[in-house]
Design a protein that fits this description.
- This protein has 117 residues and is mostly beta strands.
- It contains one helix and eight strands.
- A four-stranded antiparallel beta sheet has the order 1-2-3-4, with no helix packed on it.
- It is globular, with a radius of gyration of 14 Å.
Amino acid sequence: AAGTGAASAAAASPPPPGDDAGDSDADDERVLETDAVFLSGRTEDDFGSLEMYVFDEDENALYVHHDVAVEAFPLSVAFCQPRRAGAYAAVGSMAAAVEIWDLDDVEPPGPECRLGG
């Protein structure tokens, strides 16, 4: 059985280095100030993931921007945007630690840090 938990927030990221304004793939990777961002913790069978959805109001389109595998089933997700640049997700699970994930990294090797446990 699959389960989800969700949090939402608005976020923006600058264009990637060397970005070509006419490149539609690069446009899909960019999160604009006008986009709505939704975070979801998802579990399916023995797999847990953090998914970042983007809703583009101009295009009236909702799509998965990227997802990352998490070590334990996610129970809660919170959007974090510290004063410095960047956007992060705090993921709580049955594990003894809360994982902090960098949402600007599409293919992170792991969480930025773990709090507790």
